[in-house]
Amino acid sequence: MYENFVTKQGKSKLSDSYMASLMYAIVMCKAKLTATHGIGIYNLSKHQNSRHSYEFMISIDKDMISKFEDITGIELKEPMMVYAT
Could you tell me the pLDDT band of residue 65, with boundaries at 50, 70 and 90? Predict the structure, then answer.
C-alpha cells in the first residue's frame, strides 16, 4: 500500500488561506504531514504569524505530487539530508 510513498519537504506561509490550501491538499492527496518547523514563530499570535513561513515534511504517493503542487502552489523538494561526521 505504501510502496509508492516518498517523503518531500515544502515551505508555506502561516496565513489562513495558505493553511487551508495545505490541509485541503493533504486530505485530497491522501498525504501525511510528518513534521513542521518554524523559526521565531512559536511565541507570536496567530495574527502576527500570518506573514511568517514554516517548513513542513509530508509523506505522499509519487503519483499525487503534481496534484498537491497544483492545489497548494508549493513546490515539493527532496528533504534536507543531515550527515554526521
Answer: very high
- Please give the full DSSP string across 42-53, using - where no structure is assigned: TTS-HHHHTT-E
Q: Where are the alpha helices (DSSP H) in the chain?
A: 16-28, 46-49, 65-72
Please state whether the predicted TM-score (pTM) of the whole model is above 0.85.
Answer: yes
Instruction: Provide the 3-class DSSP secondary structure of residue 74.
Output: coil
Specify whether the CB–CB gap between 59 and 32 falls below 8 A. Answer: yes
- The cell 491522501 sits on which residue? 30
Q: Please give the domain boundaries of the chain with CATH numbers for all domains.
A: 5-72 (3.30.70.260)
